[in-house]
């Protein structure tokens, strides 16, 4: 665990799944960014799934990083999807619109 954040990677059936656990606040957004970059390197093709079920706080800065990671995946010809995003854990629930712009 680093800065209250844990990232676990699972490579199965062509899909890379990143399970995120803990608080995604401004202090550990760089850990998230680096971890998503690692997920892209672990398997250079196929979909990426980000599972947020065990996230208890999600800052706006983390939403921006998730949007950027989605754009990076698209540029690589990949898809990135979020699973188990609980809006009640977003520190500014109105900011979830940031993700809607990922297309």
Automatic annotation (TrEMBL):
Classification via SUPFAM superfamilies: SpoIIaa-like
Xref: PROSITE patterns: STAS (PS50801)
Domain STAS: 5-103
Entry-linked Gene3D superfamilies: STAS domain
Pfam families: STAS_2 (PF13466)
Protein name in the entry: STAS domain-containing protein
Organism, scientific name: Virgisporangium ochraceum
């Amino acid at each position: 665990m680093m800065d209250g954040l844990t990232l676990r990677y699972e490579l199965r059936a062509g899909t890379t799944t990143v399970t995120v656990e803990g608080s995604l606040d401004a202090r550990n957004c760089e850990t998230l960014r680096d971890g998503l970059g690692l997920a892209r390197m672990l398997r250079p093709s196929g979909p990426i799934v980000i599972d947020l079920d065990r996230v208890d706080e999600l800052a706006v800065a983390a939403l921006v990083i998730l949007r950027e990671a989605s754009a990076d995946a698209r540029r690589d010809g990949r898809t990135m999807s979020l699973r188990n995003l609980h809006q009640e854990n977003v520190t500014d629930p109105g900011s979830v619109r940031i993700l809607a712009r990922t297309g």
